[in-house]
Amino acid sequence: MDAERLARLVDQLAPALLAMARVRCHDAEDIVQQAFVALIKARVEPENHAAWLFGTVRKLALASQRAGVRRARREEKVARSESQAGPDPAGALDLERALEALDPDDRDLVLARTRGGLSFEEAGRLTGLSAATAWRRYQAAMELVRAKLEGWE
Hints:
Number of strands: 0
Distance between the termini: 45 Å
CATH topology: Butyryl-CoA Dehydrogenase, subunit A, domain 3
């Protein structure tokens, strides 16, 4: 893979990959960096770079999550107390907060689809779902996000 192609992939996918990893672990930047390094070192270049990167980041993030169960519980406790404070009055963080309210797997679907450009089949494979189930869960997640955003206006 040439440097120009890699730079385009980083610019295009890194924000969504970071958002996906942040749901599960505290070292999201490291996870995303590891995924890009693994892509560079791959002996066989994947057919679909976006799907491969989303899958790799998901696997690395889940492994990190399992390794830090106690840390995750502590952070969840803090996050719960902060989330009870109500919506940001300025509205700047409403979308991020609406996405954070989703189930982590549903958030992965939304990010993979909207930011990664993955098909429902690819996004479903990422989360272990059929394309039809991924589509239904994506639709439900988007309705929840819309409802939350409308409720905070």
